[in-house]
Amino acid sequence: MANFLHEGDLPAGLFAGATSVAIDSETMGLRLGRDPLCVVQISAGDGDAHVVRLNRPAYDCPNLKALLVDPAVTKIFHFGRFDIAMFHLHLGVMTAPVYCTKIASKLARTYTDRHGLKDVSKELLGVDMSKAQQSSDWGAANLSPDQLAYAASDVLHLHALRARLDEMLVREGRDDLAKACFDFLPHRAALDVRGWEEVDIFAHT
Predict the structure, then answer these.
(1) Nearest 5°: CA angle at 172, between 168 and 173?
(2) How many CB atoms lie within 10 A of CB 68?
(3) Any alpha helices (H) in 95-157, and if so which ranges?
């Protein structure tokens, strides 16, 4: 088990043969259009994490972009709506197919309103995650060891979390509904990027 730092892009062929990868990103803030995308972290579920410090503002990362749009690889997120929108805005690609553990949690764990990654991982996997580095300077020229470890932690457990949540979704008869939500997620992200971020387009008013 190790964390690897890559400058600018993923090495070619790094995830060849993978059918799913866990992905997260770090930005300078949470506002689309204002805050840049800085870091993308990925794991194939094998205990290793690959952290890419992106070259801004060019974002020249063809290997990462190819992975994001590869139809044979499911991209697993927690609150993928934001990451997918950031990738669409800054990398110019629409990520698909996708799975979101936060959406799965909201559909399966209706007995709670605590659906953050820390809470879901603690309950379902017994993993106590630290969020100490969440609000640090991800645009810095060099990432600290603590930042690297934090970025890695956000993707290392998503495969196991997906497996547990899938069991719950099937048990509750909501797996088809979850799949439909995942299929729509890239379109929801596109709406965010184009100005409908705060609008419920399905609402009557």
Answers:
(1) 115
(2) 24
(3) 101-108, 117-125, 145-156
Tell me, what DSSP letter sits at residue 129?
-
Give the CATH fold of the 3-196 domain. Answer: Nucleotidyltransferase; domain 5 (3.30.420)
Taking only the tens place, the pLDDT of each residue in 157-187 is 999 999 999 999 999 999 999 999 999 999 9
SS3 content of the chain, % helix, strand, coil (to 5): 40, 15, 45
What value does the CA radius of gyration of the chain take, rounded to a whole number of Å? Answer: 16
pLDDT, tens digit (0-9, with 9 covering 90-100), for 34-85: 999 999 999 999 999 999 999 999 999 999 999 999 999 999 999 999 999 9
- CA of residue 146 relative to chain centroid, distance: 19
The domains of the chain are located at 3-196
Q: What is the pLDDT of residue 135?
A: 75
Grouping H, G, I as helix, E, B as strand and the rest as coil, residue 150 is: helix
DSSP β-ladder status, 49-53 and 98-100: unpaired
CB 125 within 8 A of CB 161: yes
